[in-house]
Every structure is written in C-alpha cells, then in structure tokens.
Write a structure and sequence with these properties.
This protein is α+β, with helices and mostly antiparallel strands. The protein contains 10 helices and 8 strands. A hairpin with a 2-residue loop joins strand 5 and strand 6.
Length: 328
C-alpha cells in the first residue's frame, strides 16, 4: 500500500509537536529546579540568622522584624541596619516599638520596599538579609507592565494596531490572545540569544536586527504550523499573526530586557505583563467603540477623531495607577 505523503507529514508534525512540548516541559522543570537550588544557597542558615527570624520593609521608613525568641534589653545601639549598595554606611535607627512576634523599627531615611538591606544584632550575634520575596518582585513587574506602565496608554506604542482592530470586540479579543502568546515566545527567544550568544561574543550592536529576525521567525513559524495543523484556528486568528509583525511593542520588550540585562524570570514577567496590558487595552477600547456606535457623534468627530479622544480618556484613567505599589 503506497504511503500517503499528507498523512506522513501530519504524523511528523504531531511527533515534532510532542517532542517540542516535552522539551519545553523539561526546560521549565530544569529552570524551576535551578531557581530552588539558587534560593537555597542564597538563603542564610537558621544558625546564622539567630534570633532574627524575618524582616520586611514597610514604606516609607519602617522595618518590621520577627524574632524567634524574646531579646531582653533590645535597643537601637545593638542593631545595625545597612543598605546593600553601601554596607559600610549604617542607616540610623531612631525608634524601636514592640509588636506581636517582634519589633517595629523606625529609621532616619526613606526606604525602598523593593531594595535590599542587611540587619545585624550584636548580642546574640545574628544577621538577616532584608529583601522582598522573589514572587513579589515578579508580580510587581507583571502589574507594572500591565497597568502602571501600560505600553498603549502611558508609552503610546502599538497605536496603529490598537486603532485598527478595536472596532469589534471579538477581533480585539483574538488579537489580544494571539499577541500575548507571541510576545512571551519572542521575548524569551530574544533573551536567550542576547544573553547566551550576543553578550559573550560582544555582538550587542546587532540586537535590533536579531530581535526583528526572531519576531519574523516566530510569527512565520506559528502561521505555518496553524495553517497545516489547525486550519479552523488559522482561519480565525491567522490574520492577527501578520499584524503582530509590525507592532512596535513586540520589539520594545526584548530591547528593554537587553538594556536592563534582565534575568529569565524578569524577562518572562515583563513579557507576560506587556501582553496582558496590551490585551486589556484592546478589550477596553473595543467595548467603548462598540458603545460609541450607538451614540450621536458629530460628523467631524466620527472615526479616528473620536477614537483618539477615547484613548486619551483611557490614558488619563490609567494615570491613576502611577502611584500603585504592591510591596508596601
């Protein structure tokens, strides 16, 4: 019986997809294991911490310290609080207030909730690093990229697609989902190429060309795969893949990660937050424009003029997130 080329190609594609998913799962498990090992090595042992069980910065000038046992006669003179960037310059502790399970320190300067500090106790000897949890930092990156520094409403990027696909809600939702998936893939591939290849080879000056190539490769690969394996899905969302190629946000995120020399977790968090923020902007704008079709808009404001006015109102609303801080 002759072999059907189409059926053989489908079997090859399915096998390749299973292998790719297995590799992605293995890479995710490996990365998680490395993070756990790194955190275990970075955390000081309980013997080194002594009576200092934990600490958290409370903006603007307080530090809540948890004690494993009571320390009689605890005063500010027995404690030393320093910043990671200037470990030789102590930060003055102006007051100590007993609280449940520990003490509340008041310092003489404004503290950064996302900063790193060190707290030392002279007797009994104890030392404790004071920094926010890694999950809290990643969550703050996601929320900041989605709300506080939204690429559409605060940085005014991606406006061409933003105004082009927000006439209908279904179109905006499809574009938002597709954009978020492509954003995460391109950001992580660009980060890997930049940190593992370009930086060691001193090829940082090629970052723009390389990142554009990565975006084009991912978009073309996904378009071909969807067309061959899921024709119905490609018919519904395939057109959005071509539009993503010309979106400046898809290039801005890898450039930001490269300029900040971000780690893999930070790069992924920025990509997820940026994708969710763009999807949220598309959804809100599409809802408003559908409602606007029922309104009596003057002829001179119909079309893009009223759309720009709506975008300005959304931008003003998003300015209310500018002071949001989840690490307080």
């Amino acid at each position: 019986m002759p072999l059907d080329p189409l059926r053989f190609a489908l079997h090859v594609v399915r096998a390749a997809r299973r292998v790719a998913l297995s590799l992605l799962l293995f890479a995710a498990c490996t990365a998680l294991a490395l993070l756990v090992v790194r955190a275990a090595h970075a955390a000081p042992p309980a013997a080194a911490r002594g009576v200092l069980a934990g600490a958290r910065v409370l903006a603007p000038d307080h530090v809540r310290v948890r004690l494993s046992r009571d320390v009689p006669g605890l005063t500010a003179a027995r404690l030393r609080f320093t910043g990671e960037r200037s470990p030789d310059v102590p930060i003055a502790i102006t007051a100590i207030e007993p609280v449940t399970g520990g003490v509340l320190l008041t310092v003489g300067q404004r503290l950064d909730p996302a900063g790193a500090y060190t707290l030392r106790l002279d007797d009994p000897p104890s030392e404790l690093p004071v920094r926010p949890a890694p999950w809290a930092l990643l969550l703050s990156v996601v929320v900041s990229a989605a709300l506080i520094n939204n690429f559409v409403f605060t940085r005014y990027l991606g406006l061409c697609i933003f105004f082009g696909v927000t006439k209908k809600r279904d179109t905006a939702i499809g574009m938002g989902i597709t954009f978020t998936a492509v954003m995460v893939l391109t950001a992580m591939m660009s980060w890997a190429l930049y940190m593992l290849v370009m930086v060691p080879k001193h090829l940082e000056f090629l970052e723009i060309l390389v990142f554009i190539g990565v975006v084009a490769f991912v978009v073309q690969f996904l378009d071909t795969m969807l067309k061959k394996t899921h024709a119905a899905l490609h018919k519904k969302w395939g057109i959005y893949l071509m539009l993503i190629t010309t979106n400046c946000i898809i290039l801005a995120v890898p450039l930001l990660n490269a300029s900040a020399l971000a780690g893999p977790a930070d790069a992924a968090a920025l990509a997820v937050g940026s994708g969710l923020g763009f999807a949220l902007a598309l959804f809100l704008m599409s809802c408003a424009r559908e409602k606007m079709e029922l309104a009596r808009v003057p002829a001179s404001f119909q079309g893009l003029p009223i759309a720009f006015a709506l975008a300005g109102l959304f931008a003003l609303a998003f300015m209310g997130f500018s002071g949001l801080d989840f690490l307080r």
